[in-house]
Design a protein that fits this description.
Helices cover 66% and strands 1% of the residues. By secondary structure, it is mainly alpha-helical. It has 4 domains: 76 residues, 434 Repressor (Amino-terminal Domain) (Orthogonal Bundle), CATH 1.10.260; 181 residues, no CATH class; 85 residues, no CATH class; 73 residues, no CATH class. The longest helix is centred in the middle third of the chain and has 24 residues. It is globular, with a radius of gyration of 23 Å. About 2% of the residues have low confidence.
Length: 438
């Protein structure tokens, strides 16, 4: 039955609006332009029930009501540009609804909204709202519910940190524990009694756990779930006033968009995230991901500017500690992602050198990253017409992925299979094709 509900009615309902509320919002948007709109609840009903398409002006007013940038309004694709129902608006009390939306979505994968990743329009709109809202911590004292003790929060912080810093081959077994920690923290935020200082720690923990859960879902190709957990983490960071953590979660959403071949969305999210990121290491990582998104669009000059900024910012001395979410960023990551950007721009020789250099710099503890780097290296060897060497790198990536449980590496290598099939007689390629098919 829900599949037959018009998307406008779904969005309106998710925002708690009646048809009258939406009509009033449209009329108010027209008035702000010095114009008048004749939209009323009957007109809204025609759009939602009779399938009548709103005219250009009305679609622009609808976009303003729901906070969608005008450049994202494609009149001809109505109603596809409307924001996703599952994206909770940022607000003073939005953390718990966003966390519970992500947790519910993860438990019930049969829901229609979980079948695909969140639209680029919704993500850009959310990033714009975050970037344009200048607010400090919003966590207030909660005076109702069962008391939450500092000892309990300390235990949750300690165990969460230990679970999330295990080596990849161990973390593949801990996903249910991390999920359970996030569910517990969500309940404490929603139902516990605590002072603001403890509430801030709970929100910070929720943001960190949501980010970890999202990456686990992303690694296993569950993109709709991953996006909702990153968004839930963004709400938590927003409530605690942690701009760098908020930028981190937007950056992760952008990384996902690039992975899903939507570099335009990725770049626009990152541009907004950079407006409020302060720590040099955090800004370096965002510029590096921006470079990847720009290179995928063939924007050479902008890509080189972003790479230069990432290199300059990495290692800039600062009295503030490096945020945990980007403490792993190193010269190895800078070299490999720079190489990937140059590869997308057609500079194959230099790209190959940088990727090889980055792989050599990578510490032994980062096995999953090594598997990803090996897949990148396989691609550059194919670009250079070296299928035998490419097959060796891809085979190592698959072996590593199998040992530590890293399905994203497998996905990268399998994406190269069509190119390897053109070299089926080259040394190592037949064996790789068999291994990739398993």
């Amino acid at each position: 039955m829900a599949d037959n509900i018009h998307p406008l009615a779904l969005v309106r309902g998710a925002w708690g609006m009646t048809g009258v509320d939406l009509a009033r919002g449209i009329c108010a948007a027209a008035e702000r332009r010095g114009l008048r709109s004749g939209v009323d609840k009957q007109r809204v009903r025609k759009w939602e029930v009779a399938g009548v398409r709103p005219d250009r002006e009305s679609q622009e007013y609808i976009a303003e009501v729901f906070g969608v940038p005008l450049e994202n309004v494609d009149v001809g694709s109505w109603p596809n540009w409307l924001p996703d129902v599952g994206v909770v608006r940022l607000g003073p009390a939005s953390t718990v609804p966003a966390l519970r939306e992500a947790l519910r979505a993860s438990m019930d994968r049969s829901r229609r909204t979980i079948l695909s990743a969140i639209s680029g329009t919704a993500l850009i709109t959310l990033a714009g709202a975050w970037a344009s809202t200048d607010t400090g911590p919003q966590v207030l004292e909660r005076v109702q519910g069962k008391g939450v003790g500092e000892g309990l929060v300390a235990v949750l912080e300690e165990t969460s940190a230990r679970l999330t810093t295990l080596a990849t081959r161990e973390r593949q077994h801990t996903a249910p524990l991390i999920d359970a920690h996030l569910a517990t923290v969500t309940d404490l935020i929603a139902e516990g009694r605590y002072f603001p200082a403890l509430g801030l720690r709970l929100h910070a923990l929720a943001a960190s756990l949501a980010q970890t859960v999202a990456w686990h879902r992303f690694d296993h190709g569950r993109h709709g779930e991953a996006g909702r957990f990153w968004i839930a983490g963004l709400h938590s960071a927003y409530a605690s006033g942690d701009h760098d953590m908020g930028a981190a979660l937007l950056s992760d959403l952008a990384y996902q968009a690039s992975w899903r071949n939507d570099p335009r969305t990725a770049a626009r999210i990152l541009e907004r995230a950079l407006t409020r990121t302060r720590h040099p290491a955090a800004r370096s990582l965002l510029h590096l991901r921006l470079a990847r998104a720009l290179a995928a669009q063939g924007e050479r000059r902008a890509t080189l500017r972003a790479l230069s900024a990432a290199e300059l910012l990495l290692g800039v001395p600062t009295p503030d500690p490096v945020p945990a979410w980007c403490s792993w960023l190193s010269e190895a990551d800078l070299a490999v992602d720079s190489g990937q950007s140059l590869s997308d721009l057609g500079e194959t020789r230099r790209a190959h050198q940088l990727i090889e250099e980055g792989q050599n710099l990578l510490p032994p503890s980062r096995d999953k990253t090594r598997g990803v780097f090996l897949a990148y290296r396989a691609k550059t060897h194919l670009d250079r017409g070296e299928p035998d060497v490419a097959a060796a790198a891809a085979s190592k990536s698959l072996d590593l992925a199998s040992r530590i449980g890293a399905p994203r590496c497998v996905e990268l290598v399998r994406g190269l299979v069509p190119r390897f099939e053109a070299f089926s007689d080259a040394e190592g390629v037949p064996e790789l094709l068999v291994k990739a098919a398993v």
